[in-house]
Amino acid sequence: VRLVESGGGSVQPGDSLRLSCAGSGYSAGYYCYAWFRQAPGKEREGIASFGSDGEATYADSVKGRFTISRDNAKNTLYLQMNILNAEDTATYYCAAALSWWPQCAMSIERYKYWGQGTQVTVSS
Question: What whole-number distance in Å separates Cα of residue 82 and Cα of residue 86?
Answer without folding.
Answer: 12
